[in-house]
Amino acid sequence: MADTVFAKIIAGQIPSHKVYEDAHVLAILDIGPLTRGHTLVIAKEPAETLGELSDESAAAVGRVLPRLCRAVVAATGVRDYNVLENNGAAAHQAIRHVHFHIIPKPSEAEGLGIGWPAAGLGRDAAELAARIRAEVR
User: Fold this and answer.
1) How far is it, in rounded angstroms, from Cα 66 to Cα 74?
2) Dihedrals φ, ψ of 42, to 5°?
3) What is the distance of C-alpha 20 from the center of its chain?
C-alpha cells in the first residue's frame, strides 16, 4: 500500500490541492475531475477496501463526508452531487486505497453517469438477509 499514489500524496511526496486534513482523513481535488469541484476524500489508513478499514478510520471519514459535501456545494454552487466509493477492480476501483469521490452534478448530461440494472430480490432473500446478519461483527 505504501506505493499507491494516495500514500505518496499523504506522505507529501506528490503535491495536491488539499481542501481538508485531519489525523485520519485527507481531502483533495481530483486531478482528473468529472466536474468542477470533484473532490477525493481519502482515508489515511492504508486499506484497500472499505471492509478492511478500521472502525476508527471509517468513523472519521463518515464524520467529515457531510461537511465536505456541504463545502463542495457552497464553493461550486451546484446543489446536486454523487458520493462514490469503489471496492476492487471489478467494481471500478482504480487506486487500491480507500477513497470516496464527491462529484458535483450540475446537469443530467454532466458529472457521473450511472446505469442501474435492477433485479428482483429472489426467492432466497430471507435466507440471504439472515446470513448477512450472522456475519455482522
Assistant:
1) 12
2) -110, 130
3) 15
Annotation marks residue 99 as catalytic: yes
Q: Give 20-49 pLDDT, tens digit per residue.
A: 999 999 999 999 999 999 999 999 999 999
- Does the predicted model carry a pTM greater than 0.85? yes
Q: Counting beta carbons within 10 angstroms of the beta carbon of residue 68, is it exposed (0 to 12), middle (13 to 18) or buried (19 or more)?
A: buried
Domain-by-domain residue ranges, the chain? 5-114
pLDDT band at 116 (very low <50, low <70, confident <90, very high): confident
Rounded distance between C-alpha atoms, residue 51 and residue 98, angstroms: 9
- What 3 state SS string does 71-98 have? HHHHHHCCCCEEEECCCCHHHCCCCCCC
Q: What superfamily does domain 5-114 belong to in CATH?
A: HIT-like (3.30.428.10)
DSSP per-residue letters across 117-128: ------TTHHHH
Residue 26: CB atoms within 10 Å: 20
pLDDT of residue 1: 52
Sheet holding 99-104, edge to edge: 18-21, 25-29, 39-43, 99-104, 81-84
